[in-house]
Structures are given as C-alpha cells and as structure tokens.
Amino acid sequence: MINVRTDLVLEAREIYKANHKDEGDIDGIEVIEESEKDIKVTTVKVKNEEGSKKIGKPKGNYITIDIPDFTIYDGETMNRVSEVVSEILGRLIKIDTEKTALIVGLGNWQVTPDALGPKVTEKIMVTRHLSAVMPEVIDDSVRPVCSISPGVLGVTGIETVEIIKGVVEKIKPDLVICIDALAARRVQRVNTTIQIGDTGIAPGAGVGNNRKQINEENLGVKVIAIGVPTVVDAITIANDTIDLVVDSLISNSSSGTDFYKMLKSLDKNEKENLIKEVLSSQVSTDMIVTPKDIDLVINSLSKIIANGINMAVQPNMNMEEINKFMG
C-alpha cells in the first residue's frame, strides 16, 4: 500500500478495512454515527492497544463533524456547526466552571493553510485576567480562559511542547484545548471535516513534520485536540487519479480483449508500488496541495471553531452575550 499521510481517524480506519477486507469489523474499534442539527457526527472509539496498533492512532475518542456544503458562505450554517462543535466539546469537558482553560493555537501564522490555530486564538474570549481588573462585571459564572499561539519550531527555535509546558507549569490550567491544521488522505475531506479528540496532538503532523506530542502524559493536564484537514499530499492525488483512469479504461473496454484482461490482471500492490516509484522520482514527496480559496476558508473555519470553543468553555453564557463581550 502506498504510504498515505492522514491525521483523520476515520480515514485511517477506512484504509485499514480496505486492506483487510477479510477481517470484517476491527477489534478494539467502535463506530457510532449520529446527527446533530442535521449535521453528521461520527465517533470512533479506539478502545484498546490492538485497535490502536491497527489504525496507528492512540487509544481514545475521536469525533468527526462533517461540515455541510457551502458552509463558509452561509452565516446561519456556520452558527449551526459552531453549536455542534460546542455540544461535542461539552461532552469532553468535565471540569467545574471555576477551573481554568488554556486555548492553544498551533501552526504557523505566516502560512495560510497552517494558520488555523493562530486565527482561532484571535477570536477566543479570554477572561482569566478580568476577575482582578473588572470584579464588578466578571463573576463566578464566567470561566477563566487564556490563550496562546506559540508558533512553530522553524520560527521560534523552541519546541512547541516546551513553550506550552512552561505556560502550563506557570498558570496551572485544568484543561488545554489545542487547534491545528491537519492533512487528509482524500481531497473530499479537505476543509469539510472537523475532528475533535481527547488524546492530544502532534504539532506539524499535517505536513509530515511530527514534533513531540502535546498530550496529558507530557503536560500533566487533560488535552483536547481540534483539527481541520487543510492540505492533501500531491502524490496521493496523483495515485487516486491514476486509479480512476484505470477504472475508467476497464469499464469502457470490451471484456474479451487482451487490453481488458491486462487491466483486470493488474495486481493492486504491484500497481501502487510502481506508481509510488515513478511519482517519487518525478514529484516531490514533500509537495502538498490546498484549495485556491484557502484564505476565505481559514477565516470562516476559525470563526466556527472559536465560537464553538467559546460556548463550550462558557456554558453559562449564550452566543449573544459572548459576541457582546468580544465587541
């Protein structure tokens, strides 16, 4: 199988099942599909080490929200998706209102497809400092929230997890929520999926530059990760295109011809190895692709996720009150 880069647990499960069709359901993996406000939500539970090993993802809960078509152009739909994000986060946030939440925007603000995290932090309702500054306005019903955007190693020269760990040790939050851009296996998933998980995240994973994990083990505090796939590998697009061409040739060829028999006899693994060998020599394996309207998409997605976080971490406030606070 061609080496496929994906940060989405749904895709990792699909890839495993496609390569092990005779196994049926994957042991240690539970999938639950539901609908929230007419928006599809899929929960994948990696329940044990066996399931974790098979799909290459840590044990935990991964919840995927399918964003409806044209959401980024429709404010009403954006609000509905934000409410679903808030609902999902509410299931995972199990701390009292007075506990502190730290929001971390991962990524490089200088590179648009990787700027989702920093864009989200710009829209977070930060309140941790206000109890001392505005005690007459901020009461116990408002959760103390702070946010940072630590940048990336190539810009700061500091491992992202080291910056976050230093902040965590200083302010001692009870919850960390990280937002990052991811990579998808399928073009159809790019900018159309929000994945929320409770196992942490590896910064840079979306562009194949894995850094030290940001998780409860390394920080000593619960970590929730929110990600959106904003890029896809060029080599996987080429691979899929060739597959489609072969399938089209098969469907349009006469079944008795030598050409048809040759196409049908192609061994999938041999074909994929050949594709990988040829493409690797002609196309940079580090090349990634993102849609041309990525600026608009990142702005809209950052609003959706920030609003969802704001409502989830401030359960005693509604969207109107939060917007009034944000000015």
Automatic annotation (TrEMBL):
One of its GO terms (molecular function) is peptidase activity. InterPro entries: Pept_HybD-like_dom_sf (IPR023430), Peptidase_A25 (IPR005080). GO terms for biological process: proteolysis. Autoproteolytically processed. The inactive tetrameric zymogen termed p46 autoprocesses to a smaller form termed p41, which is active only during spore germination. Gene3D superfamilies: HybD-like (3.40.50.1450). It is an enzyme of class 3 (hydrolase). Its EC number is 3.4.24.78. It catalyses: Endopeptidase action with P4 Glu or Asp, P1 preferably Glu > Asp, P1' hydrophobic and P2' Ala. Residues 1-7 form a propeptide. Keywords: Hydrolase, Protease, Zymogen. Homotetramer. Initiates the rapid degradation of small, acid-soluble proteins during spore germination. Belongs to the peptidase A25 family. This is Germination protease. It comes from Clostridium gelidum.
